[in-house]
Amino acid sequence: MNALIPATILIIWLVLGYKIYGRFIEKKVLQVDPSRPTPARELNDGIDYSPAKKALLFGHHFSSIAGAGPI
Predict the structure, then answer these.
(1) Alpha helix ranges (H) inside the chain
(2) Which site from 8, 44, 62, 69 is most exposed, i.e. has the minimal number of CB atoms within 10 Å?
(3) What is the DSSP letter of 38?
(4) Domain range summary for the chain, segments of one domain joined by +
């Protein structure tokens, strides 16, 4: 059997599972409410909690993950 067929089926299965199970977790378990303010907005004191722009937040997240790569 060609390896491309099982690989394609597996990728489709994983994507569907990710979408369906992720939606279930979002709605039933975590009960995400988009109108609820984040802790950075709710507890904003200008020191520990302060809202960040998406690009800056992505940079911090990426550097914390990629920084330990060479170790």
Answers:
(1) 4-24, 39-42, 54-66
(2) 69
(3) P
(4) 4-66
What are the angstrom distances between the C-alpha of 8 and each of 22, 23, 30? 21, 23, 31
pTM of structure = 0.52
pLDDT digits (tens, 9 = 90+) for 3-61: 999 999 999 999 999 999 999 999 999 999 989 998 888 999 988 888 888 888 888 88
Contact call for residues 60 and 47 (beta carbons, < 8 A) = no
Which residues neighbour 5 within 8 Å (Cβ) at sequence distance 6 or greater? Answer: none
Residue 37's SS3 state is: coil
